[in-house]
Specification:
By secondary structure, the chain is an alpha+beta fold. The chain has a single domain, classed as Nuclear Transport Factor 2, Chain: A (Roll), CATH 3.10.450. 39% of the residues lie in helices and 38% in strands. The chain contains five helices and six strands, in the order H-H-H-E-E-H-H-E-E-E-E. A six-stranded mixed beta sheet has the order 2-1-6-5-4-3, sandwiched between helices. It is globular, with a radius of gyration of 15 Å. The two termini are 19 Å apart.
Length: 144
């Protein structure tokens, strides 16, 4: 598994060197996807938030030095970590950048921040979006 993660990270680092800028229409589309996902979070709708991820056992999520696989596993992890609207707080994405690797893959990098009543947490992320069966979904999420 460690070799797989290293390979993914190498692909992510090499990706922007080969990447092409998105057209304004493509950038608007992916920006809207991120905004809609953020809105679902802020409505405390984990299923709506997870609707942008690939509903597959192959979905990959990397955070805090751990690698997790599978849509249901990741969804359950979110539900355990964020059991209610207060725990979820208010999510804001910023510094979004998009890079097209090919016709069916786009990388998105950015920053996230969650405001809760008594604390603010945040970090950065890299997402790989892929066109799967005519639908754009996140197939890999590396969030720190």
């Amino acid at each position: 598994m460690r070799k797989f993660v290293v390979l993914c990270m190498m692909m992510l680092m090499a990706g922007p060197m080969m990447a092409q800028p998105l057209t304004s229409v493509e950038k608007d589309f992916f920006t809207k996807q991120m905004e809609d996902q953020q809105k679902n979070w802020n409505l405390a709708d984990i299923d709506g938030y997870m609707g942008y991820y690939w509903a597959s056992d192959s979905l990959l999520f990397i955070t805090a030095g751990k690698v997790r696989k599978g849509w249901q596993n990741i969804r359950d992890s979110y539900e355990n970590k964020y059991p209610d609207a207060a725990a979820m707080g208010t999510l804001a994405y910023s510094e979004l950048f998009f890079y097209k690797l090919d016709k069916k893959k786009v990388i998105c990098t950015g920053a996230w921040k969650i405001n809760r009543k008594d604390e603010v947490i945040g970090g950065t992320f890299t997402l790989i979006w892929a066109k799967v069966k005519s639908r754009w979904v996140i197939i890999m999420d590396h969030t720190e």
